[in-house]
Design a protein that fits this description.
heterodimer, A: mainly alpha, Cytochrome C Oxidase, Chain A, globular, B: alpha+beta, Helix Hairpins, 3 domains
């Protein structure tokens, strides 16, 4: 391969290459071998299939919402139906897709391999968490099939407890159970990262993907129980009227807001941190460089997790929290923005003096950098007390969190899926089609959500079924963008499915990446490593890799 | 190329209206917009910087140009730069935002007060002079207006985008917001907190009138009975005056002039008597026993609507002497009892 080539992809000779005879996919046969597996890689695949299923259900609701908002009048569906659409969209996308997305799929698959372990610390708990995910998912689907739920994903009292007669308790039970799945995943990661690292794998030799998942796991374990308690209180209030949140019984509806956001703000970081880990891996690999300021990036993940717990009341600035607590929470919100800014610049400077190629994961990562910068900066708008008054509860906030969650997290998820697809399946995805998908997604995303910032500043409230006619043009643009975005998300589903059978054989290390996961066969053996690896170099050590490759050539040749 | 007529119509409509920013119709709006433009500026600069770095490095260090990467560990100086500069900018935004927040939420003392009740799915405005409006609000230019708001059922949120003000309307407690309108015209009122089926129909219009027009409107639309007068009738019909009679031997504390004063409670604490305190003391009297009085007042939870409570609060607010209590005392004991006020829920 010439040095002026524009790609680092290094595939084995396709005429002789074969998928390894023994690997985790064909180690055992039959559906039951999957349903009772303890293998973290198989569980990751189960999760991947499950979250993809829920992603497209949630996406369908998003499509229906945008279709309704094409016209100012309430003409496609009834108001109650529209309210159910956005409620189901939110509940499914957040609890059944975003929270488990990267940790439960890529994290499950990669963390043990990255640290040189055979599996997670508790393989059976890992399987249990997938079952809990599905039990919760079935409750949510039941709520949907039985007639839906229209609380919004926030389950706000007293609306959810006293004024709605939809399947609130069913949906809340679903979310409650899914919460335990995420607690178990977090617990598993924490124990695994503490106890199962291979010899020589010190904390500061861990890939940054592990650091960010570690930070997210802490949030899952500490935050999710609060959500569980809150939902139990909502259910009790609804069923027996205990009155914790009911002002007529001496309760306080604001208490619900505090409890709910105490989980749900950290949840935002549960969703984004693992994505940041993916971006670190991808950018390093495709610029052939160690991540700029490794320790700063690692510690900024931990800083985000730490500060993330103390900013929840910025969701309540207009709800009459005291002036002093508003000040404190606004200040802490500004502080939590700083580690994200640090990361963005560290990633940008990782490119400096690198040797950059532009494969699909890198394109998604670039998309992430741009969109996450906008998402993060608009978060500063909302953290500024006086500005928040005008912007909160409008489409500005909708656009803001979609930039972070979809523009950030989903881009990172897709970057990660493309990046590790060869490792998970042993086959490459089609390169040009996937680049098209990445570009389509980016364009569609911007067209969908940039107009919503303008709508928000103009004052269009969120969760509106009908809206004043002067907002129509921007809404039409947004719906048009959503169509493009939908195509951008359908494409990977199709070509990744295609590649399972027809993709080129990837070989061990198609990207010539440094992580331990790339030094073993693809797809890996069930036991990952034949002998326990010994880590004798830093993460992202491309010189070590070059040296190793050179030696392999000499021994073979 | 042929452009579809539908698309063409949209583009023309948009370019004609071309609203990228809402109107500035209150004294607060220019302050809010100033911060918004500053934030937009730092966003655009930040985004441009990230863009330049990514594209610059991508072009300069792409594999064709730069086949072998040069390993760089990091740089404390650069790390410090991009920690301190964003931090400084964010702190400026914090201070600026906080100043704006206090400007928006601290009403001037001379603000005129209007009560707003939110309920599924309408806004009810009650002017002290006895004007009642549904999904509408009339205010004059050039005078600060404070809204004292409460919800009768779920969370709502009262928003006037063109004024850049918004506040959550909460069940069980008063929240306030104020503004001073500058330009006559009509502006949207939105409920911005999801409140159930017809959330998007919980909208209204605020009509800003010149002071003369406003006076005319006030004269023409009064119901003939001020909130305090309604409150006076309610005070009598609920039997409040039996104890709060203002006489020395009364079983309840004297209410004349109580509004705005500091009250000593039996539990030793001191409270400022404001709208919220009065409302709580009616609904939850056992928590608020004035020092020197026995805890004999029953709760009125569920017996008085939010409208009725506002009437009572207005009445007590306006009560500077016991003259009117004595009057109502006579009325209620005579056979010419005051008729029940509309909006009073009979237990």
């Amino acid at each position: 391969m010439s040095t002026t080539s524009t790609t680092i992809v290094n595939l084995p000779d396709q005429r002789t290459a074969r998928i390894p005879k023994r690997n985790y996919l064909n180690n055992e046969d039959g559906l039951l071998s999957w349903l009772f597996t303890g293998d973290h890689k198989r569980i990751a695949i189960l999760y991947l299939i499950s979250i993809t299923f829920f992603f497209f259900i949630g996406g369908a609701f998003a499509g229906l919402i945008r279709l309704e908002l094409l016209t100012p009048q309430a003409d496609l569906v009834a108001s109650d139906t529209y309210n159910k659409f956005f409620s189901m969209h939110g509940i499914i996308m957040i609890f059944l897709f975003l929270v488990p997305s990267v940790p439960a799929t890529l994290g499950n698959f990669l963390i043990p391999i990255m640290i040189g372990a055979k599996d997670l610390a508790f393989p059976k708990v890992n399987l249990l968490s997938w079952y809990l995910y599905w039990i919760g998912g079935l409750f949510t689907l039941a709520a949907l099939v039985l007639g839906g739920v229209d609380t919004g994903w926030t389950f706000t009292t007293p609306l959810s407890t006293h004024y709605l007669n939809t399947h609130v308790v069913t949906a809340a039970t679903g979310v409650f159970i899914i919460g335990f799945s995420s607690i178990f995943t977090g617990l598993n990661f924490i124990v695994t990262l503490h106890r199962m690292r291979a010899p020589g794998m010190t904390w500061f030799r861990l890939p940054l993907f592990c650091w960010s998942n570690y930070a997210a796991s802490i949030l899952m374990v500490l935050g999710t129980p609060v959500l569980a308690i809150t939902l139990v209180l909502v259910a009790l209030e609804r069923l027996v009227g205990i009155g914790v949140f009911d002002p007529t019984k001496g309760g306080d509806p604001l208490l619900f807001q505090h409890l709910f956001w105490f989980y749900s703000h950290p949840a935002v970081y549960i969703m984004i941190l693992p994505g940041m880990g993916v971006i670190s891996e991808v950018i390093s690999t495709f610029s052939r460089k160690r991540v700029f300021g490794y320790t700063a990036v690692a510690f900024s993940s931990v800083a985000i997790a730490l500060f993330g717990f103390f900013v929840w009341a910025h969701h309540m600035f207009i709800m009459g929290v005291s002036n002093y607590s508003a000040l404190v929470f606004s200040l802490l919100t500004m502080l939590v923005a700083v580690p994200s800014a640090i990361k963005i610049f560290n990633w940008a400077f990782t490119l400096q003096k690198g040797s950059i190629t532009f494969e699909t994961p890198m394109l998604y990562a670039f998309g992430f950098l741009g969109l996450f910068t906008i998402g993060g900066m608009t978060g500063v708008f909302l953290g500024a007390l006086g500005m928040d008054i005008h912007l909160t509860e409008t489409y500005f906030i909708v656009a803001h969190f979609h930039f972070v969650m979809v523009g950030g997290m989903l881009m990172a998820f897709l970057a990660g899926i493309h990046f590790w697809w060869p490792k998970m399946t042993g086959r490459m995805y089609p390169e040009s089609l996937s680049k098209l998908a990445a570009v389509t997604t980016f364009i569609g995303f911007n067209l969908t959500f940039l107009p919503q910032f303008i709508l928000g500043y103009l004052g269009m409230p969120r969760r509106y079924h009908a809206y004043p006619p002067e907002f129509q043009v921007l809404n039409v643009l947004s719906t048009a963008g959503a169509t493009v975005l939908g195509i951008g998300y359908m494409l990977p589903l199709l070509y990744l499915g295609w590649s399972l059978k027809y993709g080129a054989i990837a070989g061990n290390n198609p990207w010539q990446a440094t992580g331990l996961e790339w030094q073993i066969q693809s797809p890996p053996l069930t036991e990952n490593f034949i002998e326990t690896p010994i880590m004798d170099h830093e993460a992202y050590d491309y010189e070590w890799l070059a040296h190793k490759t050179a030696q392999e050539v000499t021994t073979v040749g | 190329m042929h452009i579809s007529p539908v698309l063409w119509q949209f583009l023309v409509k948009w370019l004609n209206a071309s609203a990228l920013f809402p109107r500035e119709a209150s004294t607060i709006a220019p302050y809010a917009d100033a911060l918004y433009f500053f934030l937009l500026l730092i966003t655009v600069v930040g985004l441009a910087l990230v863009g330049i770095l990514i594209f610059g490095f991508s072009i300069r260090y792409r594999k064709e140009k730069h086949p072998v990467a040069i390993q760089v560990e990091g740089s404390t100086l650069l790390e410090a730069t991009w920690t301190i500069i964003p931090l400084a900018l964010f702190l400026i935004v914090f201070v600026w935002g906080a100043l704006l927040y206090f400007r928006i939420y601290n009403p001037p003392t001379n603000a005129m007060n209007i009560y707003v009740i939110g309920k599924q799915w309408m806004w009810k405005a009650e002017h002290p002079g006895g004007q009642h409006e549904i999904n509408a609000l009339h205010v004059p230019t050039g005078r600060p207006v404070q809204l004292t708001m409460i919800s009768q059922d779920v969370f709502h949120s009262f928003s006037i985008p063109d004024f850049r003000v918004k506040r959550e309307v909460i069940p069980g407690r008063y929240s306030t917001v104020w503004f001073q309108a500058t330009t006559p015209g009509t502006y949207h009122i939105f409920c911005t907190q999801y409140c159930g089926t017809n959330h998007s129909a919980m909208i209204g219009e605020v009509t800003v009138l010149s002071p003369d027009d406003y006076d005319k409107w006030t004269q023409e639309s009064t119901s003939g009975m001020s909130l305090a007068q309604n409150g006076e009738r309610l005070f009598a019909s609920m039997g409040c005056n039996a104890c709060h009679s203002g006489s020395a031997a009364a079983r309840g504390p004297n209410l004349a002039g109580v509004y705005g004063s500091k009250l000593q409670l039996t539990n030793g604490s001191q409270v400022l008597v404001n709208d919220a305190y009065l409302r709580d003391a009616i609904l939850n009297p056992s928590q608020h026993i004035t020092a020197g009085y026995a805890p004999i007042m029953p709760t009125y939870q569920g017996q008085i609507s939010e409208d009725g409570l506002i009437d009572l609060v207005e009445y007590i607010k306006a009560m500077q002497s016991n003259y009117r209590v004595q009057q109502t005392l006579t009325t209620s004991t005579s056979n010419q009892a005051a008729p029940t006020t509309p909006g009073v829920m009979k237990p």
